[in-house]
Write a structure and sequence with these properties.
The chain is α+β, with helices and mostly antiparallel strands and 72 residues long. The protein is built from 1 helix and 5 strands. It has a single domain, classed as Double Stranded RNA Binding Domain. The mean pLDDT is 93.
């Protein structure tokens, strides 16, 4: 999980390991969470599946920034 402060909000990028089938390479579901003052403001749900946890987290953070920009 990655986090960052952005325009008064705390943003969280999540990567959730997907184990649909073995021996397929691991995939990670990406999502984002926007919080303010320790309260959840918005949650993205699953955005897509990615080959790395870092990519999934970065896409989640990007979604969060876009949400703040459109609702701030």
């Amino acid at each position: 999980m990655q986090t960052e402060k952005y325009r008064g909000y705390t943003l969280w990028g999540h990567a959730i390991l997907q184990q649909e089938g073995i021996p397929q390479p691991a995939k990670f579901a990406g999502s984002g969470t926007v919080t303010r003052d320790t309260k959840v403001v918005e949650v993205s749900g699953v955005l897509d599946a990615f080959d790395s946890d870092e990519e999934a987290e970065l896409v989640g953070l990007s979604w969060c920034r876009a949400w703040v920009d459109s609702h701030g």
